[in-house]
Every structure is written in structure tokens, then in C-alpha cells.
Design brief:
Length: 332
């Protein structure tokens, strides 16, 4: 059962974050109003409603972007809308046209991530584009998925198709999703080779690199708590040394020291060829990984390792302090 209390800004601003997953709290003033609190500090208003025999969690908005009174005022409308019968739309709509609607209304990603998704859909699902939604069968979907090389991308595209048709059912364009009941594609789950001991070994190997750019870039993967693409594409004008920030993201003390000791030789922090930023130093990284005894280690494994261990805080200074405390364990 969700913990119940009267929602007010002071309490919601200071709610403790769970170590993993999420917690749910409930408003006493409007008992239908609840709030997710994730391990990363995100807080989201929602309601629960049994719709057409199925329990649904309907998102209202994020706190503090949406204030408490607004969320309370929306509860009745959201519950009423959820109870309405799904309209049957007689207009024919192609898979491609509905994909554009789905992308606009349902996809919430960063710009880079959305570009990758669109590219993958255009490449792998184009055989469905000209077909009308209500004419696509389960066999059509199986045929498209079977052409995709690689289990990971095949499974991802099957999930995308299922999400698109789920939304099509909600919007009344099809009665039953042809993607429902498809056998899940089994994937060999990859396990990161990193642990505490190997992180120490990795840091020693990185520090021994002769090339300044590679050494600093690889250390920044550890010090910044950022994924590879963000580290390698850093620009000097995005850094705020007065407040220890990169584009609003707090930087650890060792990250700031590393950056301050680097010469500014252009727009990019980590310069590559042709006056562009360092793009994908996979050969240099592979040599580091082999030397550290982890030949299958990926650059983003480092980001995931540290983010799983970082204690999240919504306040930037608190988050920065948590970064420093975690890094102290590996930099003694």
C-alpha cells in the first residue's frame, strides 16, 4: 500500500529516493492522486483506473513542472477520459503515417536517441510502411522481424511494433493488435566484466597511456559519470568552471581538475581529426581493455557501472558530493 499524507511542496521536495526501482505515495486530499518517486529522483503524478477490465496507470505530469493543485484538479478529467469507450475510426491509415503520429505523441527521447530510433525503424520496418494498419497480420510482422540480423535489434523492433499497435488500439484504428502473443525473442544477456578490483586496474592502465587526448578522454569517462558520446563531444564553451558544471550537469572535483589542466586547442575538449571532436577511439580503447584484462569491456560499461552505484540527489551540489564520495573509493 502507498504511504499516504497531504501533498505539499515542502514534503514532495524532500521525499527520500529509493535505492532501486521506485516508491509510490498517495495524497490524502485527493486519494486518487499518487506520485512515483524513482531512484533517480524523478517524481511523477499518476492515477490508477480499471479500464475495460484492465488496471491502468495513467500519467498526469511530472513534479515540480506540474504543481500539486493542478494535478489534483486534473484527476477527475483524467479518470473520466479513461472511462470513455474507444472510438472506432473508419479512416484507413498506413503504418508509416501512424508511425509518424506515434513518434510525435508517444516517443519521449533525447534528440540523438530519437534519431537512432527513426533510422532503425526506416531501415528495418519499411516493408510495413505502405500497408494499412488494419490489414497488417501477425505473419507480416513475423516476416519483417525474421529479416533483421541480430537478436538485439530484432527484439527491439518487435517491441516498437507492439508499442505502435498498442497505441493504435487505444486510438481506435485497430480492434486487436496483430503483435499481441508474438513469441519473445530470447537474447543472450551481456554481463559487464567490471567490478571494484577491475576498475582500479582500469584506472592504472588508462593513466599509463602516452597520448594525452586518449588518456584524458578515458579518465573523463570515469570522472564525469557521463556516457561515451557526451564525453567525446564536449565543447569548451559548454563548461562552467565557476559552478563546476557541463551543460547543467555537475562535475566531480577530479573531473574539474583534469579539465583545468588541459590546454584549449579548439572548440572541442577532446580534439580528433579534421578539427572535429574525437569520435570513436575503439582501437585505443580495445588496447586499454586488453591491458586491463577485460577485452570485451565497452566504454559505456564504465558509465553504467558508476551510475548504478551513484546515490542520486535532485540538488546538484548534493549530487556532486555523492560523485566525489564514490570516486574517492577508487582514487585513493
Amino acid at each position: 500500500m502507498a504511504h499516504q499524507f497531504f501533498f505539499n511542496p515542502y514534503i514532495l521536495d524532500n521525499l527520500p529516493t529509493p535505492a532501486t526501482g521506485f516508491d509510490v505515495v498517495q495524497d490524502i486530499s485527493e486519494p486518487n492522486l499518487r506520485l512515483y518517486v524513482t531512484s533517480r529522483g524523478a517524481k511523477t503524478f499518476f492515477v490508477r483506473k480499471r479500464v475495460h477490465g484492465r488496471d491502468r496507470r495513467i500519467i498526469i505530469g511530472s513534479y515540480p513542472e506540474m504543481d500539486i493543485e493542478t494535478a489534483r484538479g486534473m484527476v477527475a478529467t483524467v479518470l473520466l477520459d479513461a472511462s470513455k469507450k474507444i472510438p472506432t475510426r473508419r479512416k484507413k491509415l498506413s503504418f508509416h503515417d501512424f508511425w509518424e503520429i506515434f513518434l510525435k505523441n508517444k516517443v519521449r527521447r533525447s534528440e540523438d536517441s530519437e534519431v537512432k530510433l527513426v533510422r532503425a525503424v526506416n531501415l528495418h520496418l519499411n516493408d510495413l510502411f505502405d500497408k494499412n494498419l488494419d490489414e497488417i497480420t501477425r505473419d507480416d510482422i513475423k516476416a519483417v522481424i525474421s529479416k533483421i540480423g541480430g537478436r538485439v535489434i530484432a527484439a527491439r523492433m518487435q517491441e516498437v511494433i507492439a508499442s505502435i499497435f498498442k497505441y493504435a488500439v487505444e486510438q481506435g484504428y485497430v480492434k486487436v493488435s496483430p503483435a499481441s502473443g508474438l513469441q519473445k525473442i530470447e537474447q543472450a544477456r551481456r554481463i559487464s566484466p567490471l567490478n571494484d578490483e577491475k576498475v582500479l586496474r582500469l584506472i592504472d592502465v588508462i593513466k599509463s597511456q602516452e597520448t594525452d587526448v586518449m588518456r584524458n578522454a578515458f579518465l573523463m569517462l570515469i570522472y564525469s559519470f557521463l556516457p561515451k558520446n557526451k564525453v567525446l563531444s564536449m565543447r569548451w564553451d559548454e563548461l562552467d568552471f565557476n559552478h563546476y558544471l557541463w551543460k547543467g550537469w555537475p562535475l566531480s572535483d577530479v573531473a574539474v581538475v583534469l579539465l583545468e589542466n588541459m590546454p584549449e586547442g579548439g572548440d572541442w575538449v577532446f580534439m580528433g581529426r579534421c578539427k572535429n571532436h574525437l569520435a570513436d577511439p575503439r582501437t585505443a580503447w580495445h588496447n586499454v581493455a586488453v591491458a586491463a584484462g577485460m577485452p570485451n569491456l565497452r566504454m559505456d560499461d564504465v558509465h553504467k557501472f558508476f551510475m548504478r552505484r551513484l546515490v542520486w540527489a535532485s540538488d546538484r551540489e548534493d549530487l556532486r558530493a555523492n560523485m566525489n564520495n564514490l570516486l574517492d573509493k577508487y582514487l585513493v
